[in-house]
Amino acid sequence: MKKLLLIAAVAVLGINASAQEFRFGPKAGFAMSTIKIDDKQDDLSARKMDPKYTFYIGGMAEYKFNDKFALQGEVLYSPLGGNENIEGVNAGGLFVGEKTKITFGTLLVPVSAKYFITEGFSVAAGLNVGIILTAKQKTVIGSDLLGVEIDAEDSDYKDGNIKSGIKTLNLAPFLGVEYALENGLFFDARYSLGISNLSNDNSGGSVKNSFAQIGVGFKFGGN
After folding, report:
1. Which of 101, 13, 27, 36 is nearest to 61 (CA)?
2. Which SUPFAM superfamilies does the protein's record reference (predicted)?
């Protein structure tokens, strides 16, 4: 009886081990980032900046427990942010406006749980932990023919550096999908909703950064 139980245990462990799979590889793609600002001053102060179209690049690792479930971790870099165009006025026959571009140089560490609907198609849910390494703002006032870049009067924000006014941690839960081919090539898409208030201003306002990603990568490893 003991021998039978031992044989059964070894068989179960063998099946479980064969189902486990570790894969890793590079990934890169396109990102669309937006910034939502709420100054808490009046009903019109909340606004969403125009999207910033950018990229991301990095690597991923996936541990598959069985045919249905897996955990995935990644390390990515992306210059996220947003743009804002303020309509100008006609000044002596010259249409003058203002354009502002904000860039958050962000190290992203997404961790997700994956469910495989089929062998190649999976859905995922997780948390994107963003570490903002740099924060820059560029504002240009002028026309399409002539523009003048302006700098902040505050000495802490000189040369477009606004890092002192922005918090470092950006938490963003996300949902995503992935389609993988048998040769290791995969395509994925996800949306991350920024829930962290990135503003260091004590006035009660908020700055939140959300972003969508579409990319491609390759997985090495496996059984």
Report:
1. 27
2. OMPA-like (SSF56925)
Q: What is the DSSP letter of 202?
A: T
Q: CA angle at residue 41 from 40 to 43, to 5 degrees?
A: 85
d(C-alpha 14, C-alpha 7), whole Å: 10
pLDDT digits (tens, 9 = 90+) for 180-217: 999 999 999 999 999 999 998 877 789 999 999 999 99
Domains of the chain and CATH, by start? 21-221 (2.40.160.20)
CB 96 within 8 A of CB 140: no
Calpha distance 20→43 (Å, rounded) = 54
Q: How many other CB atoms are there within 10 angstroms of residue 162's CB atom? A: 19
